């Protein structure tokens, strides 16, 4: 009986440890993504969010962040193509996204201000 109880305790500790590693890996990817965004490395941030999504595929937040970030990426593409009006449109989409990240929203606002100064 003691062996069964010990085996159960070890299994529970192992499962708890795996969950913590899983959670830590997800959090690390999210943090790396936000750091990349702060450095205006939007494509790199998108990659980190994609990894986080693979770790937690049902997480709605990371899906929202990816969508919001995709608007900034699209805006930068439009800006480089010389289409400022379209770029501003995409940034407005990122800014107005319900339940989006406040950090991504702020980066979208800052990017919009830069574009409007062109």
From TrEMBL:
<dbReference type="InterPro" id="IPR011990">
    <property type="entry name" value="TPR-like_helical_dom_sf"/>
</dbReference>
<protein>
    <submittedName>
        <fullName>Uncharacterized protein</fullName>
    </submittedName>
</protein>
